[in-house]
Amino acid sequence: MSQDKLRGSLVTRADNDLDRLAAPPARSAGEDGRSGEAVPRPRKGAQPSNRAPHKYMEDEEGPCRVLRWAVDSLDLTYQGEISDRMWERLASLKETAQSEQEAEQAKAQISIGNHLFAVAGHGRGRFRFVLTDERFFIQVSKGKGLPLAYGQISSEYLTSVGVEAAASDLRYVVNSLGRVDGDEHVSRVDPCVDLVPLVPVDSWNVRQWITRAHSKACYWTAGDRFSGWRMGIRGAVQSRFYDKVLEIVEESHKTYLFDLWAAQGWKPDDPVWRQEFQVKRAALKELGIDSVAQLLSNLGALWSYLTQDWLRLAQLSIEDSNRSRWPNDPLWDVVSGVNWSDMPQPTLTRIRSSGVPRDEQLFTGFPGYIASLMAREGITDWSEGLGEALKQADSFHRLQGRSLARYVEQKASAKGRLLSTINNRIGNLEDKERIHREADEYRRARDGEDE
After folding, report:
1. Rounded CA gap, 348 and 262, in Å?
2. pLDDT tens digit sequence for 207-238
3. What is the pLDDT along the chain (451 residues), one digit of tens a residue?
4. What is the rounded distance in angstroms from the CA atom of residue 42 to the CA atom of residue 288?
5. Model confidence over 398-422: pLDDT tens digits?
6. DSSP label at residue 31
7. Beta partners for residue 219, in sequence order
8. Non-local CB neighbours of 121 within 8 Å, separated by 6+ positions
């Protein structure tokens, strides 16, 4: 949840004054809390619990209905070394992206497999290059002292094809950069469950969250709408329980989730809350999870650790000061009990870049500008107003030494580069010469000819 839009109204530690005032005296650290955020290895062979049904139907009683569970975010790193040829190529494209001419910037693209990446005019941290498309955000280094690549897979792509296929696709891209040593390493994973609560979630007491985390926080919008809880801020493991519909409308705009939920019986008036964990490499390493294969074979055990050992929502008991004995809230039994060996198959068919303008932006902004010009010129007829707008816009741009059509085409090329929707290098002479040169070098190396 964005700190800009959602303001924290309560931040508390397990042993602070507010916690002591909210309920009977807290138990000692040895009863159910641990100092620090050490992450013990999960119990060997731990399996996801099946004590709760996967979802409640509308005509059944229960604390919630589960709509879906999935891996929402996945970051992978690769050790190795970039090839000299790819280094030179990316350096040239990065320089192109830094051009003062927008038409030149639009050519800062590279095709790898079925991906059309925009090459940024800047690096990120110690990584020299940044490649982006609608599926991946990849940071690339020389590979000496740093990982060769750090790749982030978009949640929409994970929803579309699943973890295994998305990771395989990313591996293909990274292999094209140079030499890759060994398996990928999982740097971050965010498993989540989307649910419709049939009980109020804004009445929970802070003490009901029993966690290994140092901190707990709950949030409201500026309009006093309760928006969620967050545990372990900045830790190796973090938890967020938040209003997903609100987050989609105000921040992420991932409206494709509405269709996925609707397929499971969701209706637009139903509230949807998400329980999501963020697990970083330090914690994953202690849990014995390194590669994607290890992650997939241990998702159930990981979820059991997160929802049984690291965090749980308990029923408040004023008679028993030992919170480790408090039973789980029934809603948490459902959350903890999802079966990760039976994760729903991907059903999303279209992947859209997160930067693609939405219909409401395009089709309210464009008519809005026309309406402003019509008001300025005293025009009330739409056809007359549209024609006048095009005429005046063309006149304006011709005074700048270009036509309106050329200006719009250049803008489309530039935006198409950033959205990976337009290949501005088709027919590029430099690319044709490079392809012929590389093919000739390959032929001579194959035939054993001297260069």
Report:
1. 13
2. 999 999 999 999 999 889 999 999 999 999 99
3. 433 333 333 333 333 333 332 333 333 333 333 334 444 444 443 333 333 334 443 445 689 999 999 999 999 999 999 999 999 999 999 999 999 999 999 999 999 999 999 999 999 999 999 999 999 999 999 998 899 999 999 999 999 999 999 999 999 999 999 999 999 999 999 999 999 999 999 999 999 999 999 999 999 998 899 999 999 999 999 999 999 999 999 998 899 999 999 999 999 999 999 999 999 999 999 999 999 999 999 999 999 999 999 999 999 988 898 999 999 999 999 999 999 988 877 666 665 655 667 777 777 888 889 999 889 999 999 999 999 999 998 899 989 888 888 888 888 887 777 777 788 877 666 665 665 565 565 556 555 655 4
4. 9
5. 898 888 888 888 888 877 777 777 8
6. H
7. 8, 228
8. 94, 97, 98, 105, 108
Let me know: does 139 contact 130? Beta carbons within 8 Å.
yes
CA 286/CA 267 separation, integer angstroms: 41
d(CA 190, CA 277): 5
Query: What is the Cα 388 distance to its own chain's centre?
Result: 43
Structure tokens at 441: 């070098």
Of 426, 447, 424, 448, whose CA–CA distance to 435 is shortest? Answer: 426
Q: 10 Å Cβ neighbour count for 328?
A: 21
**Short-list 162, 191, 196, CA closest to 55:** 196
CB 277 within 8 A of CB 238: yes
Smallest CA-to-CA distance from 29 within 259, 370, 371, 322 is with: 322
Which phi and psi (to 5°) does residue 170 adopt? Answer: -65, -40
Give the start-end residues of each E strand in 198-225: 209-211, 215-220
CB-count burial class (<10 Å; 0-12, 13-18, 19+) for 240: buried
Task: Give the containing element (helix H, strand E) for 373.
Answer: helix 359-377
| ∠ CA 34-39-41, rounded to 5° | 125
Residue 38 CB contacts under 8 Å (≥ 6 apart), including other chains: 212, 286
Q: What are the backbone dihedrals phi and psi of residue 94, each rounded to the nearest 5 degrees, phi first? A: -65, -40
Residue showing tokens 């409640």: 56
Q: Where are the beta strands (DSSP E) in 302-388?
A: 311-313
Tokens (6 digits) for 420? 């990976």
Evaluate whether 379 touches 391 at the Cβ level (below 8 Å): no
CA distance 270 to 262: 10
User: Global pTM?
Assistant: 0.76
In b/e form, how buried is each residue of 126-139, taking b as 16+ CB within 10 angstroms? ebbbbbbbbbbbbb
Reference 206, options 26, 6, 1, 7; nearest CA is: 26
